[in-house]
Amino acid sequence: MLCNAYSSGLMFSCTVLQCFLISFFGEIVKSASLNCTRAIYASKWYQLKSICDRKIVLFILMRLQMNIGFKAGGWIQVSMDMFKQV
């Protein structure tokens, strides 16, 4: 009986740890994406000499407006906020 309770507790702990690690790294990717967006906005990209370079930067900014991160099942953003809710 004690062995079964120990196994159940260990299994639960491993499952929670696995969910935490995925959420933690999802949060890192999400915050890195936000930092990248802020850095590009803060730069003087509009003063670039080449129009082609300005268009590339604008394309990157448009792409960064979408949520970047891990998704569970393709529809739920995995982050520490989601881990707290579970």
TrEMBL record:
<keyword id="KW-0812">Transmembrane</keyword>
<keyword id="KW-0807">Transducer</keyword>
<keyword id="KW-0716">Sensory transduction</keyword>
<dbReference type="GO" id="GO:0005549">
    <property type="term" value="F:odorant binding"/>
</dbReference>
<keyword id="KW-0472">Membrane</keyword>
<dbReference type="GO" id="GO:0007165">
    <property type="term" value="P:signal transduction"/>
</dbReference>
<keyword id="KW-1003">Cell membrane</keyword>
<dbReference type="Pfam" id="PF02949">
    <property type="entry name" value="7tm_6"/>
</dbReference>
<keyword id="KW-0675">Receptor</keyword>
<keyword id="KW-1133">Transmembrane helix</keyword>
<dbReference type="InterPro" id="IPR004117">
    <property type="entry name" value="7tm6_olfct_rcpt"/>
</dbReference>
<protein>
    <submittedName>
        <fullName>Gustatory receptor 6</fullName>
    </submittedName>
</protein>
<keyword id="KW-0552">Olfaction</keyword>
<dbReference type="GO" id="GO:0005886">
    <property type="term" value="C:plasma membrane"/>
</dbReference>
<feature type="transmembrane region" description="Helical">
    <location>
        <begin position="6"/>
        <end position="25"/>
    </location>
</feature>
<dbReference type="GO" id="GO:0004984">
    <property type="term" value="F:olfactory receptor activity"/>
</dbReference>
